[in-house]
Amino acid sequence: MNCEILAFGSEMLTPYRQDTNSLYLTERMNALGVTIVAKSVIGDARGVATGAIRNALARADIVLMTGGLGPTVDDITREAVADALGVELYRDTEILTALYKRFAERRRPMPENNVRQADTIKGAVSLANPNGTAPGQWIDTVNEGHRKILILLPGVPHEMKAMFEEHCEPRLKQIVPPGAMATRMLRIAGLPESEVDARTAPIYTKFADVETTILAVTLEIQLHFRCIAANVKQAQARVDELCGLVEDELGEAVFSSHGETLEQVVLFFLEMRGETVATAESCTGGMVAQRLTSVSGSSRSYFGGAVTYTNEMKTEFADVPAALIDEFGAVSHEVAAALAEGIRERSGSTLGIGVTGIAGPGGGTVQKPVGLVFVALADGRETEVVERRFSGDRERVRYQASTLALDLVRRRLM
Amino acid sequence: MNCEILAFGSEMLTPYRQDTNSLYLTERMNALGVTIVAKSVIGDARGVATGAIRNALARADIVLMTGGLGPTVDDITREAVADALGVELYRDTEILTALYKRFAERRRPMPENNVRQADTIKGAVSLANPNGTAPGQWIDTVNEGHRKILILLPGVPHEMKAMFEEHCEPRLKQIVPPGAMATRMLRIAGLPESEVDARTAPIYTKFADVETTILAVTLEIQLHFRCIAANVKQAQARVDELCGLVEDELGEAVFSSHGETLEQVVLFFLEMRGETVATAESCTGGMVAQRLTSVSGSSRSYFGGAVTYTNEMKTEFADVPAALIDEFGAVSHEVAAALAEGIRERSGSTLGIGVTGIAGPGGGTVQKPVGLVFVALADGRETEVVERRFSGDRERVRYQASTLALDLVRRRLM
Fold first, then answer.
1. Which helix (DSSP H) or strand (DSSP E) does residue B279 occupy?
2. Within 13 Å and on the Cβ side, how many CA atoms surround A110?
């Protein structure tokens, strides 16, 4: 079966706001074995909305709609669906009573236009909304000889999600034919997309029943696999088989095979090996620290560190000799190593990370161009320093440098 | 005039990838005075694509399409547009020659299926693509009695943008009736969305010709204003007038009136006042540092700082007495103040920021619940400490805490 998703609301037709509900709904529908054929954002014009719903009915078995169920005149989803199906709206007294009760409980008078939220499409089942005033609607109908499911959900994400999981998924499982999708993702660090593709294509092209997508997402490479089969077990087995072969090919470049982030993997290894780490960052300005501490429980393995933006701070917090900076420059192999060694000593951690580089857009020279980064990892015995030249703007250079630093720790501990 | 945007490509119908080209195109079309009535993502099925183009032609004057111009069988935009218009495709020999030449210059043989990129819709003007192999197409036609513009652009963002700016904007300016849109945005820190709305609605509702949208974007409140008038000057004057009144009402809660970020504003004020700052962060784990250093040139006013994740690091890098931590706890008014004062002393900056709190999800108690944050600002004479209880998950608590810290500096320097 297939599905089309419509999001109603003019605010999502501005340059400032995206429809993100459809990403969540796509994931859940995929898990049921349903493919999305199209998705649209529609403004608040009733005629345009009616046309969009009619088109969706013509090409999809399931039409999932979000938004436009509020009390104002801009909220036209109920009317547009009724128009598209050629049926009437009626004001449901039970919903109306519940609305009055909800406002009464909060000791607020109900604004006159809220009564519109009780308007129900003839033939629809009303879906309770415990998190807001807009009830959803579920319509199971026959349109031009074909069975069609229309689902109206609120646009507020947490209301929409709760309603979908509680009321829609159980109903959809009754309707969607058995068959299920399994998905899995591998995350890869330290290899370019083209190399990942070149090395894995000979493997994944042999799995015609598994769809493989290679994406470069926030500067990491992801390999997504998905398979639809008669049941979940079968689908999962095929995905896992392919995943295993790809992991063998890419080796330690695969940092995650079950959805973990690089930060989570690094902290997991640190804890497992009984190691601790501290950071001394120049060009990344705290990004490595911030990424590590974004994981709950990171304090067990991460002590903290220093953002040594000036030369003086490098000396003050990581004991980098001023003479070393004078001799080799702040952006150098030597200073990166000294930062890692110094912060390790000062913090008492078993590992120390040092990062220095030129994030740009200014500050580059012929010898030391924008994007040049040195990342060091010290463990008290030896200090490994990696030099890279990253491309992209300031944020891309910083993010890539912080990823390199985290990945250095991961590879050391594997 | 109005416009509909269609993005072709099945990869944007997965949970992993969004169409972002439409945000750019919306901004540019808005600037020309054109409103977007709907936008859609369409998969690789030719029939669905043809239907979507027909629907768009029925409701919009301009149909902007991105993607599906590549050489593979999945690239169906050319065929679908021809189908929708009921016209033929022909293989343009001039484009074909250019394609062969492009490959020859790179000393690579042209794959057989690349000849499809020379397929041109009858009546279309071909748009050169200096950045890739897929040429665009521009069609100015009459459909069911109405003038319609159809534009086919490549899906790769930098190819699409270059082609739109070079070939489409000049043509559109000839066609779109005079009238232009002016926009402006105010960014607000430290006030909830409901209060911003309550205080500004009496003002903006008096400007019927200016569309006002209040958005909560990554935990900051934005007020977007836009006005379409006979010319840019007139539109801008109305937007500026409303902006001025709203700024008067909200006072120093408005941190930006010309698009600057909070980080940029803070660094601007620091430089203007000859002040410098350093940071000592516990729960934010380097996020304040990372945000400040995301701005190019931040090293002029930001010295660096410490991520003092353990108690020992608070003592080592910000001279917080161990006894103070024992007495009041690491998350306390006193320790926040000591962090700010200590890092200021140690770094030699004129201002010091200290942040401590409980980001969650673990670590909360009845006395010190998750979301409790203390932010301190020291200037050598007095130390201001603000206590807040933020809601949301770990990342939201951390982000709000870092925003509070930056805003404290801004308000001090205003």
1. strand B277-281
2. 19
Give A-chain residues touching B352 at CB under 8 angstroms. Answer: none
What is the rounded distance in angstroms from the CA atom of residue A2 to the CA atom of residue A176? 9
The structural domain count of chain B equals 3
Residue with tokens 């790809």: A246
Work out the percent of chain A whose per-residue pLDDT is above 70. Answer: 99
CB contact under 8 A, A30 and B24: no
- Residue B383's beta-bridge partner residues? B378
Which residues of chain B neighbour A299 with C-beta distances below 8 Å?
Answer: 309-310
Q: Hey, of A290, A298, A346, which one would you mutate to test binding to chain B, going by the most B CBs within 10 A of its CB?
A: A290
Coil vs helix vs strand at B20:
coil
Residue-range definition of the domain harbouring residue A41: 2-175
- Beta-carbon count within 10 A of B174 CB: 6
Radius of gyration of chain B, Cα coordinates, nearest whole angstrom: 28
B 210-229 residues with CB < 8 A to A: 213, 215, 217, 222, 224
Same domain, B36 and B168: yes
Task: Indicate whether A147 and A293 sit together in one domain.
Answer: no
| B348 and B385 within one domain | yes
Going by DSSP bridges, is the β-strand pair A35-42/B35-42 parallel, antiparallel, or unpaired? antiparallel
Do A309 and A191 share a structural domain? no
CA distance B115 to B71: 7
CATH number (domain holding residue B35): 3.40.980.10
pLDDT of residue A230: 83
A38 and A130 in a single domain? The answer is yes
Same domain, B312 and B168: no
Mean pLDDT across B256-285: 96
Domain final residue pick, A197, A229, A256: A256
Report the candidate in B73, B79, B91 with the shortest Cα–Cα distance to residue B49: B79
* ipTM over the 0.85 cut-off: no
> What's the CATH code of the domain at B384?
3.90.950.20
Q: Pick from A67, A69, A85: which is nearest to A148 by CA?
A: A85
Q: Which residues contact B11 (CB under 8 A, 6 or more apart)?
A: A213, A215, B17
Q: pTM of the prediction?
A: 0.81
Whose tokens are 């909220």? That residue is A75
Beta carbons within 10 angstroms of residue A219's beta carbon: 14
Q: Identify whether residues A288 and A369 lie together within a single domain.
A: yes
Q: Residue A147, Cβ neighbours under 10 Å: how many? A: 12
CA distance A289 to chain B (A): 6
Measure CA of the first residue to CA of the last residue in chain B; give whole Å.
Answer: 43
Q: What is the pLDDT of residue A265?
A: 97
DSSP H helices in B294-393: 311-318, 322-328, 333-347
Q: pLDDT value at position A71?
A: 84
The share of chain B scoring above pLDDT 70, in percent, equals 99
Strand B136-143 relative to strand B180-188, pairing: unpaired
C-beta separation of A129 from A136 below 8 A: yes
Do both B170 and B193 map to the same domain?
no
CA distances (Å), origin B277, targets A293, B190, B268, B302, B343: 22, 21, 12, 5, 9
Distance from CA of B339 to the nearest CA of A (A): 14
**Which two structure tokens, joined as six digits, stand for A337?**
């190593």
Taking the alpha carbons at both ends of chain A, their separation in whole angstroms is 43
Amino acid at A411: R
Structural domain ending residue among the three candidates B256, B281, B303: B256
Contacts of A98 (CB under 8 A, 6+ apart): none
B199: domain CATH number is: 3.30.70.2860
Please say whether the beta carbons of B38 and B60 come within 8 A. yes
Rounded Cα–Cα distance for residues B284 and B253 (Å)? 23
The pLDDT of residue B271 is 97
Q: In angstroms, rounded to a whole number, what is the distance separating the alpha carbons of residues B111 and B90?
A: 19
- Give the Cα separation of B357 and B398 in Å (integer): 9
